[in-house]
Structure formats: structure tokens, C-alpha cells
Design goal:
Number of strands: 12
Order of helices and strands: HEEEHEHHEEEHEHEHHEHEHHEH
CATH class: Alpha Beta
Strand content: 15-25%
Bound molecules: ligand PBG
Shape: globular
Radius of gyration: 20 Å
Number of domains: 1
Low-confidence stretches: none
Helix content: 25-40%
CATH architecture: Alpha-Beta Barrel
Number of helices: 12
Length: 327
């Protein structure tokens, strides 16, 4: 048969398939989430996230060691404080759980790149991401506390801050506060298009951050919306964001593609707890190959246009990339 084009020529063996890959990944683009619990000594498995752990401040360096061994050099820290109140005081305390963890890590591993999640939901007794006024989160009051929190993380040694609260104007507020205190060079990674997603379930159980009433739809984005994501990114960029993010990842690949086409900033995606848990549970039920699905899911996010990925699979993915199974 006379066929001029035979796409299968470039699929004939592994060497040519690798040669022609359109998407290239590197462990350098992976960020690993680390949960630090102020009330814990040692390490405790997280029930809602099989394979993940809570770390005490005394043992958080173990999490970092495992990352470095796997070739992952970036982590994002989440804190579980010993005490909570209505206004999230423990979020910005100088000896708060995240602040202590940063100091412990930086003392031993100064080159491990620490990003901190800046939000109040783990630190408020009502579980909302800001200061309440009645049953609503008061946007402008919350900004001051978020800025204070971000500053305390940077003063403890964080390399980058990542506000995930979805208040209006938070990037500008954080930028101004960091600059005032001489931290002009510390970048902000904005959770720009963060949707009010049901995929956060396991995280909220792991971080003890589920809202005690209502939900987060008053501040996180409506999953129906696409243009609003472009607007949120544009606002964050105007306010001084250095990196924009779309979250969750797999159900929002279209949004990742559009935002990465529209803006020239580095783009992060967050493969969230529910995405991870679904792969784990389905594999545990014997229905899918965990390793291959992990690889394919991560790859799709980069193919959609993300330059970096926050994922609970970061260590395993780094190894898969090194082996050439992806990327
Ligand atoms: C804090 C925050 C959440 C996640 C990251 N930062 C939870 C939420 O918004 O309810 C979710 C991460 C995940 O599900 O893996 N606001």
C-alpha cells in the first residue's frame, strides 16, 4: 500500500519514541507537600492519604531527606497547630509550627527550597480561610493577617510564599508587607485559579481544616467558570505574583492550557489530595496499574502547559522521570 505518511514510523521502538516526545519533564519541576504537626513527636501515617505522613517538628528533616534522596528539591509546608482560635493567631506566631519547621529544615538542609502555604483554615477554630464577620469571611480584615503570616514564614527562612486563601487583593497585601520589611526578592506563588473543589476532601481530614459550617464557595472559584480563571490570574499578576497556579489539576486541564497560553509567567498546577487518593484507592482495588496511571496523570498536566507540579507522588515521579518511563 502506498502511504506517504506513516505516523507509526516514530512509534516503532522505545528509542525513537523517547526521541520524539513532545513533553519533557524534570524532577526540578516537582514540589512535595509536607505536613507538620505541632503536637506530634516522630512520624505518623495519614489515614486519608495512604503513603503520606504527618511529621513532628523533631522529625520533619526525615521528610526532606527522603525528598533529596529521590531527587526532589522543593517542598511546600502545611502546618497543624497545637492551638486554634477565631482569628488564626497561631498562623503568624514566631514559634508557630510552620515557622519552627522552616528553621529546623534550613539548619540542616539550607539548599532545600521551602515554599509555604499561606492560609488560615488550619489555624482558625471555625476552619474558614479568614476572619469571620457573622458567617462571612471578611476579605479586608483577612488580608492583614495573611500578610503577617507570610512575613513570619519568610522571617523564619521560607524561600517562597504561596497564598491559597482566595481573598481579593492578597497578593498585593503580601507583596507590600514583604517589601516593607526588606524581602523584595522573595517570590510569591499565587494559588490564582483555585476552585471550590470536592477533591480537597482527604487534605482537609489530614490538615484538620474542614470548615465547621458552610463551605468555601464564597471565596474559592465556581468549577463552571473558565474566563474567571483568566481574570484571577490577570489580577494576581498585576498585584505582583511571580508564579500563577491552577488547582486542582486533572479536572482543570483546560484551564491550565488556557492560562499558560495567555500569560508568560511560570505556571504551577496542584494535583490535589482527592486526585492522589483516587489513584491509590483504585490501584489498591486492583483495577489500575498505580505506577502507570501516576505517570500518565502527571504527564497530562505538563502537556496541558504547566511548568511545575505540586504532587503527593513527587518522589515516585522523580524516579520515573530518571528511569525514562516518562519525560
Ligand atoms: C488551604 C489549602 C487546601 C489545599 C491546599 N491548601 C484546602 C482547602 O482549600 O480546603 C488542598 C490541597 C489538597 O487537597 O491536596 N486552603
Amino acid at each position: 500500500m502506498e502511504l506517504i505518511q506513516r505516523p507509526r514510523r516514530l512509534r516503532g521502538n522505545d528509542a525513537v519514541r523517547r526521541l520524539c516526545r513532545e513533553t519533557r519533564m524534570s524532577p526540578d519541576g516537582l514540589i512535595y507537600p509536607i505536613f507538620v504537626d505541632e503536637t506530634l513527636r516522630g512520624v505518623r501515617p495519614i489515614e486519608a492519604l495512604p503513603g503520606q505522613n504527618h511529621y513532628g517538628v523533631d522529625s520533619v528533616c526525615q521528610a526532606v531527606e527522603a525528598c533529596l534522596e529521590a531527587g526532589v528539591n522543593h517542598g511546600i509546608l502545611f502546618g497543624l497547630p497545637a492551638t486554634k482560635d477565631a482569628v488564626g493567631t497561631s498562623a503568624w506566631a514566631e514559634d508557630g509550627v510552620v515557622q519552627q519547621a522552616i528553621r529546623a529544615i534550613k539548619q540542616k538542609y539550607p539548599d532545600f527550597y521551602i515554599i509555604t502555604d499561606v492560609c488560615l483554615c488550619e489555624y482558625t477554630d471555625h476552619g474558614h480561610c479568614g476572619i469571620l464577620c457573622g458567617h462571612e469571611v471578611d476579605n479586608d480584615k483577612t488580608l492583614k493577617v495573611l500578610a503577617k503570616t507570610a512575613l513570619s514564614h519568610v522571617q523564619a527562612g521560607a524561600d517562597m510564599v504561596a497564598p491559597s486563601d482566595m481573598m481579593d487583593g492578597r497578593v498585593a497585601a503580601i507583596r507590600a508587607t514583604l517589601d516593607e520589611h526588606g524581602h523584595q526578592t522573595t517570590p510569591i506563588m499565587a494559588y490564582s485559579a483555585k476552585y471550590a473543589s470536592a477533591f480537597y476532601g482527604p487534605f482537609r481530614s489530614a490538615a484538620g481544616s474542614a470548615p465547621s459550617f458552610g463551605d468555601r464557595r464564597g471565596y474559592q472559584m465556581d468549577p463552571h467558570n473558565r474566563k474567571e480563571a483568566l481574570k484571577e490570574c490577570a489580577l494576581d499578576i498585576e498585584e505582583g505574583a511571580d508564579i500563577i497556579m491552577v488547582k486542582p489539576a486533572l479536572s482543570y486541564l483546560d484551564v491550565i492550557r488556557e492560562c499558560s497560553d495567555a500569560y508568560d509567567l511560570p505556571m504551577c498546577a496542584y494535583q490535589v489530595s482527592g486526585e492522589y487518593a483516587m489513584i491509590k484507592a483504585t490501584a489498591a482495588a486492583g483495577l489500575i496499574n498505580e505506577y502507570k496511571v501516576m505517570c500518565e496523570a502527571a504527564l497530562s498536566v505538563f502537556r496541558a502547559g504547566a511548568n511545575m507540579l505540586i504532587t503527593y507522588f513527587a518522589k515516585e515521579l522523580a524516579q520515573a522521570i530518571r528511569k525514562g518511563d516518562i519525560g
